[in-house]
Amino acid sequence: MTYQWNIRRLTAVEQETQQQLERELNISSAAARMLVVRGIQTADEARAFIRPSLDKLHDPFLMKDMDKAVERLHQAITQGEKILIYGDYDVDGTTAVAVMYRFLQKLASNLSPLTFNLDYYIPDRYTEGYGVSTQGIDYAAAQGCGLIITLDCGIKAVEKVAYAKSKGIDVIVCDHHTPGDELPAAVAVLNMKRNDCPYPYKDLSGCGVGFKLAQAYTQRYNLPFENLVPLLQLLAMSIASDIVPITGENRILAHFGIQQLNKAPFTGLSAILSVASIEDKKLTINDLVYKIGPRINACGRMKSGRAAVELLLTDDPDFARQQAEEVNQHNEDRRDCDTETTKEALAQLQEDPAFAERRSTVVYAPHWHKGVVGIVASRLTETYYRPTIVLTAGEDGIISGSARSVGGFDIYTAIDSCSDLLTNFGGHKFAAGLSMHIKDLPEFQERFEQYVASHIQEHQLQPTLDIEAELQLGDITKQFYNVLRHLEPFGPGNPRPLFVSRRLINHRDTRAVGKEREHLRLDVTDRMNAITGIAFGRADMAEYIQNGNTVDICYELNENTFNHHTTIQMMVQDIQPCSTN
User: Fold this and answer.
1) What residue numbers bound the domain in which 451 lies?
2) Bridge partners of 565?
């Protein structure tokens, strides 16, 4: 893939701020620049950013309907009702269920002899689909539940909430997805994206909305906030895996959640760390995204999200170990399945003579596994870099699938433009789910392509590497890396900084490495300082660099420990030959 390098240039005012921060904080110019790029203007703002505080969380009662939700929850608790916690089958939904269940379970243990009953429900991806289902409501009625709390779903469940009401069941909706034109007639609808909601931070995960309900209840009834702190490890997983911005309140919640994971992980999470072989390392947001999250997600993709909740809730080490092994196997099966499906989808596109002229990708095969279509959509966007939808067959002539976007293009709005052809859809700007009758697929493909072609900008069709700064290798010191580390956790809204260093040449030992010698181990210098690095899949550049040619390298920085010796190394994102070679 050919990348466009977009190097961030500071304005004159930003340059003055950089110099001021450099003096007041006694940090390097390059470190001060990273703070300025993140919108920080004063030394106090820098300190607050580097040292997040739970005291800076917003008042949960700023969220519309929060007072109603707390009142109805308290009624259920004090009157001994049975409460059903209902969540989606992905990481966000299952962690949200675990947070609410653990919160209420602890509440119940402290209220003796006053008791209430708890249960949870995760819909089956294949027989029920996304969101609140009739089957789930029937289960609640059969179990005698008087209250359902939906988490990471429910904002569009107008008919289902009405159905629950007809069964004598009240519903509290906790969701973060974009609302439709009509809100469900629930006792309370907690969603900061409601047009009438004044809550100041709009990017909470579904688990985050559930956490705010727990925070509000704790605040209203003068319970110790410390009871909520262990739950932040689950919330951090949802923030990392659901690709919400790690800014503002999410940054605070993720920071302390990762801290909890490193200090005192729940039994089930400890077991996942073990099967992922990362139990002895200091965890970062990347470990949540690439190691823990996919294993939790695999349950709902390959079998049942309920297995994930069981693992997140257990305090039994033997059960946790057994369940973690099963979850790990689901993840292995998922990998095999998405690899094969991606191959088939790519082949389908290559056989389509009209594909080269399109601005969008829509593919369908009836036999594809519903649990991996979202992953395959991501793989296709990585290959062709276009708004992408991958669909597979369901029941009764309904097909469904997942959408992924590129370059800031709003794929939710694009899908919404074809809503009259859909039986259901939901999501946000970067990712969505949808379903339709198979007969409507050709028209949907045509209209979706027309919308994308007329609205997408050319620059959105080429992947861009947003580079924070050009560095001399001498800038990469331990002090500089320490400032970099304090900018974590990284993610959307606070991306891991990319840097570029120019006119680098081979130092001693640049060479191809890996089983198939497909990767590149770099050892380069700017003639004053040297650094090592790894460029995955770029062994094609080995001979070029070994022959003394100069290159520009775009990279992230991380620490590499080998034989108890830790160094700072490049994690290379792109290499370009110097034009003056």
Assistant:
1) 352-461
2) 562
